[in-house]
């Protein structure tokens, strides 16, 4: 009896739908299809992750939850999965972000590339290496591109497609030194890899919030090109002349020794003679953002922030113009601009990293009586 009721009910509903569509078509109107619900940002991110895994490796993925949020730099280390693979992402300019894959996710991606299937074997408790990061870099780059496609219309996510894998980080502690302080857009996804969902995994992503792009002028004014002057030999008009282009090319090939300077400390000769192996020398209180790049003669070329890249110590140079803008909020004035020499405050002039014309107090005349200068320097080779 119940089956007959369901049959007749289903038949009546079909007849009503057919009658409605027929009446609309008779009046020249097309029957309307049911509207699909609008996709949420979390559903769009889940679609991007599943599409990436399917397109690259035909890897089955079941997304359990996706959380999109805004976080600060101090909160990022607390959100990383335990023992995760950390990949530093580089965007346009100096923007950096981080993607963290848990051990289960790394095992699933490597198994699909080596065994063409996801196994249920326990993940070995080993230290993740740069080789693991290179095996997962393709997945990271493709995922960023898919997320940019799905989330590009949302505020703060428009530039996610510009980020790519840059380097591997084996320790989360320097993360706050590598990333710039500010607001980040974060994505935390809990999912299961494999046909039988054997790899319960977590993916975490944090990228700087996209800033609004300035509108470029429609008709930019032409910039006057400086007029090249002839070489001194050509002006003299005698002998074999050397063009300025040849001279510039030769000068560019001259090697230059650079030194990264974090701080300086003066000690007396008596203190120097008392130094022994294992002695501790106290240094001034400095920050990693106060590093200067200097020549062997002591002239300061630029300032920067000490960090790490590709397993080596590295310095991210500061822009002199941006430094002035941050301090004053006014248009930048670079050293050497004679027309603005009277407008630059003393504090701003002292803070600029370009300081070629100022004497170095640590390069005093050898004949003067002064304390011995112990300088901690790290050589940097530049071709």
Automatic annotation (TrEMBL):
Positions of the UniProt region annotated as Disordered: 213-240
Subcellular location: Cell membrane
Cited Pfam families: FliMN_C
Principal location class: membrane
GO CC entries: plasma membrane
Presence of keyword Membrane: yes
GO biological process: archaeal or bacterial-type flagellum-dependent cell motility; chemotaxis
InterPro entries: CheC-like_sf, FliN-like_C, SpoA-like_sf
UniProt name for this protein: Flagellar motor switch protein FliN-like C-terminal domain-containing protein
Organism encoding this protein: Paracoccus onubensis
């Amino acid at each position: 009896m119940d089956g007959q009721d369901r049959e007749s009910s289903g038949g009546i509903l079909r007849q009503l739908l057919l009658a409605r569509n027929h009446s609309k078509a008779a009046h020249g109107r097309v029957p309307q299809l049911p509207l699909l619900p609008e996709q949420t940002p979390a559903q769009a991110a889940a679609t991007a992750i599943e599409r990436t895994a399917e397109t690259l490796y035909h890897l089955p993925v079941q997304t359990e939850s996706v959380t999109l949020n805004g976080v600060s730099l101090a909160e990022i280390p607390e959100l990383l999965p335990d023992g995760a693979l950390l990949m530093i992402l580089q965007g346009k300019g100096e923007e950096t972000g981080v993607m963290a894959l848990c051990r289960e996710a790394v095992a699933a991606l490597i198994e699909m590339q080596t065994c063409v299937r996801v196994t249920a074997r326990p993940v070995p408790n080993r230290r993740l290496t740069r080789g693991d990061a290179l095996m997962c870099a393709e997945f990271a780059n493709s995922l960023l591109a898919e997320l940019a496609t799905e989330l590009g219309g949302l505020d703060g996510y428009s530039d996610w497609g510009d980020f790519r894998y840059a380097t591997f980080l084996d320790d989360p502690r320097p993360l706050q030194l590598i990333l710039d302080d500010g607001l980040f857009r974060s994505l935390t996804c809990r999912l299961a890899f494999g046909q039988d969902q054997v790899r319960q995994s977590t993916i975490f992503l944090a990228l700087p919030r996209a800033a609004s792009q300035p509108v470029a002028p429609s008709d930019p004014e032409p910039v006057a090109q400086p007029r090249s002057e002839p070489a001194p030999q050509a002006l003299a008009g005698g002998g074999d002349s050397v063009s300025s282009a040849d001279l510039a090319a030769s000068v560019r090939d001259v090697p230059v020794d650079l030194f990264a300077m974090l701080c300086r400390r003066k000690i007396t000769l008596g203190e120097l003679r008392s130094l022994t192996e294992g002695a501790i020398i106290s240094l001034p209180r400095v920050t990693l953002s106060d590093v200067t790049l200097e020549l062997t003669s002591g002239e300061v070329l630029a300032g920067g922030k000490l960090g790490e890249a590709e397993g080596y110590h590295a310095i991210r140079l500061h822009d002199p113009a941006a430094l002035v803008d941050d301090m004053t909020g006014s248009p930048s004035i670079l050293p050497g601009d004679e027309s603005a020499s009277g407008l630059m405050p003393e504090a701003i002039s002292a803070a600029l990293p370009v300081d070629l014309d100022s004497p170095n107090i640590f390069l005093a005349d050898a004949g003067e009586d002064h304390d011995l200068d112990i300088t901690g320097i790290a050589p940097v080779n530049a071709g």
